[in-house]
User: What shape does this take?
Amino acid sequence: MQRKYPPSIIDVEASGFGAKSYPIEIGVVRYDGAKWCKLIRPFDHWVHWDDSAEALHGISREMLNSYGIPPANICSELNSFLGNTMVYSDGWVVDHPWLITLFSAAGVDMTFSCRALEYILHEKQMAHWHAVKSRLLDSSDAKRHRASTDAMIVQQVYMETRSLVD
Assistant: This one.
């Protein structure tokens, strides 16, 4: 099946890389090009912090405390932005559990579904994925590793690799 529109893409940045980590930023680029990105103010009991994760995404605890949105508000806004749609992640194995952690801790039901991007990637797209992504990153102004930037790049790579195999 050929897609006329790009898939909606989600990316989650977290406090670390292990099981004790929690989401600190979510970025989405919807199928229609609309973008949504917010920092998440951690619950008091979310204390795990990995300095190497902070070095990667550049988000400090101070930024979260100053500019982060309470988790329940994040969940409501994200539900409103995505509705009852499907969103895809290129890092589903970590992004999906972080979404579950967020929504569960906030006591909010998730209205959208999240699947691994591989569900809609054609095998021939995968063969081109890394080369196209590297080229797009090199030619873009996207120098930071943040959720909104990552989601936008993944969506662009998806569409470009799709056009190469159609």
